[in-house]
Amino acid sequence: MFVSRSLVAVLLSTLALSKPLARDLHVVHEARANAPSGYVLTGPASPETVLNLRVGLVENNVDGLISALYDVSDPSSANYGQHLTQAEANSYLTPTAESASAVNAWLSTNDLTASVISSAGDWLAVDVPVSKANELLGADYSVFTHVETGKQTIRTLSYSIPANLTGHLDLVHPTISFPDPYAKAPLELKRSGSNAIAKRSTDASSPCEEGEYPDVTPDCLLYLYDMPSTPTITPGNGYAVTEYIEQWATYADLKTYLEDFRPDMSPDTAWIYQSIDGGINPQNESTAGVEAELDVQYAIGLTTDVPVTFISVGGDFLTGLLDTALTLLNETAPPQVMSTSYGDDEDDVSEAFAYKLCNAYAALGARGVSVVYASGDGGVSGGHFDPNCTTFLPVFPAACPYVTSVGATNSLPTQTATYFSGGGFSNYWTRPLYQEGAVAGYLARLGANNTGLYNPSGRGYPDVAAYGVNFDVVYAGEVTPVSGTSCSSPTFGSVIALLNARLLAAGRPTLGFLNPFLYTSGIAGLTDITTGSNLACSNYTTGFYASEGWDPITGLGTPNFANLLTAVGL
């Protein structure tokens, strides 16, 4: 990651000049009562195991950053579209000299050398063996095993910091946040009944099949959302898809995909490869991943010559999310759209980590990047189906108020909210002002239903939706149908990338943080989805139903490119 030499010099000078501190009283900084459901304690972690810790320092003015974000993202603002520079965004995130000095002195006293990994200086990285981490943090790093998947992770249920660092040190990761144990995989949608049998559309001009779960191709989506298929080459435009948990794509499969489904494009079109945390780009069928193939094939297949960056991220998933955000913030010109089809149950992630990563997304939005996330595939039961859940589980980062969360639909020609579309209300963030009217209207219609199962004052998600079932993907040389909000997120991101191309061609700034636009003038470019549900908890009997206006399954609705183009004034 790039960090300015001047910033490094300042931080290192505070480290060198600070006097060693006496060992102060430690106070518990973060803790959880138990490991997340499904995880069991296996035993203590090996003392020699090296932990790659991220140390987050308190930012100097988060409130100022959020105010600036809304100022440049609200269409009614005089500063709409005047995105911040890297230096301007960093000015809100950079810790005070006092905070930097205190944290660095603490590390130095413990014979640890940290590296600065964010351009704002609010994140440090340090490698520490488990034995040292336990001593340093008053922690008990242990091995936890997820019973169903067998996956293991090293975490602690609490940690402490010196009392004098309160207000200076925001968090240490990984500590009490647990990773999603489920690898990304396509959902299997079983067709049943005569209504579910796909058939060719009765509309001769439509390239789409009809039915409950028809197979979908890029030409169908281009038609469905009125997107242009002509080449879109606008200098400065860019679109990134991010891949985690050892998900990779192959150029050979992309070539076959383009030959089969976009023969009007060059079959040699390829992605731009970017590695973070040791992410790799292997090119053999045995390492191909369905999720990665889906994301990159549809990002390229729907945007027709918009440069697409494939960001391959290695290592721990939550650390990878953080390092991806920091890497883009460290760039002077990051891609204007980033789509991610991964997430975790919100309560598996510490509030401190969730808030600080969400602040990084706010900084990206303020700099003109549209951060788009899939809303999850477990209905109201989190990222994955859990019919035994007794309360609704929100998904992170989908419920972060500074990202645009995308739910899923099925059925053609009339779309309906699909049963797996993740949606609900955050337990961490209160409802943002931009969605106050839309969500309040839904809650008034909902009445007393589901009382006690969700947080009615929380940030509602998703914000929008797109089709999400039976996308034809070329995987290991074969066409495979793939379903999930993993389909919806890159589809909606593609619409935004095409809108950005038109805006840049007209000499105007890109859209950046989308939500204040979508909930006001942008709503005219969305098609409301009023049928369907995402029942998942209590043995698939509780959840939400779609309705007129915003709902916690499909948000404000699905995109129409031509109408959104009008909404942005083109």
TrEMBL record:
<dbReference type="InterPro" id="IPR000209">
    <property type="entry name" value="Peptidase_S8/S53_dom"/>
</dbReference>
<keyword id="KW-0865">Zymogen</keyword>
<keyword id="KW-0106">Calcium</keyword>
<keyword id="KW-0479">Metal-binding</keyword>
<feature type="active site" description="Charge relay system">
    <location>
        <position position="486"/>
    </location>
</feature>
<dbReference type="Pfam" id="PF00082">
    <property type="entry name" value="Peptidase_S8"/>
</dbReference>
<keyword id="KW-0325">Glycoprotein</keyword>
<dbReference type="GO" id="GO:0008240">
    <property type="term" value="F:tripeptidyl-peptidase activity"/>
</dbReference>
<feature type="domain" description="Peptidase S53">
    <location>
        <begin position="215"/>
        <end position="570"/>
    </location>
</feature>
<keyword id="KW-0720">Serine protease</keyword>
<feature type="binding site">
    <location>
        <position position="528"/>
    </location>
    <ligand>
        <name>Ca(2+)</name>
    </ligand>
</feature>
<dbReference type="GO" id="GO:0004252">
    <property type="term" value="F:serine-type endopeptidase activity"/>
</dbReference>
<dbReference type="InterPro" id="IPR015366">
    <property type="entry name" value="S53_propep"/>
</dbReference>
<dbReference type="InterPro" id="IPR050819">
    <property type="entry name" value="Tripeptidyl-peptidase_I"/>
</dbReference>
<dbReference type="GO" id="GO:0046872">
    <property type="term" value="F:metal ion binding"/>
</dbReference>
<keyword id="KW-0964">Secreted</keyword>
<dbReference type="GO" id="GO:0006508">
    <property type="term" value="P:proteolysis"/>
</dbReference>
<comment type="function">
    <text>Secreted tripeptidyl-peptidase which degrades proteins at acidic pHs and is involved in virulence.</text>
</comment>
<dbReference type="InterPro" id="IPR036852">
    <property type="entry name" value="Peptidase_S8/S53_dom_sf"/>
</dbReference>
<feature type="active site" description="Charge relay system">
    <location>
        <position position="291"/>
    </location>
</feature>
<feature type="binding site">
    <location>
        <position position="529"/>
    </location>
    <ligand>
        <name>Ca(2+)</name>
    </ligand>
</feature>
<protein>
    <recommendedName>
        <fullName>tripeptidyl-peptidase II</fullName>
        <ecNumber>3.4.14.10</ecNumber>
    </recommendedName>
</protein>
<feature type="active site" description="Charge relay system">
    <location>
        <position position="295"/>
    </location>
</feature>
<keyword id="KW-0843">Virulence</keyword>
<keyword id="KW-0732">Signal</keyword>
<feature type="binding site">
    <location>
        <position position="551"/>
    </location>
    <ligand>
        <name>Ca(2+)</name>
    </ligand>
</feature>
<dbReference type="Pfam" id="PF09286">
    <property type="entry name" value="Pro-kuma_activ"/>
</dbReference>
<dbReference type="GO" id="GO:0005576">
    <property type="term" value="C:extracellular region"/>
</dbReference>
<feature type="signal peptide">
    <location>
        <begin position="1"/>
        <end position="18"/>
    </location>
</feature>
<keyword id="KW-0378">Hydrolase</keyword>
<keyword id="KW-0645">Protease</keyword>
<feature type="binding site">
    <location>
        <position position="549"/>
    </location>
    <ligand>
        <name>Ca(2+)</name>
    </ligand>
</feature>
<dbReference type="InterPro" id="IPR030400">
    <property type="entry name" value="Sedolisin_dom"/>
</dbReference>
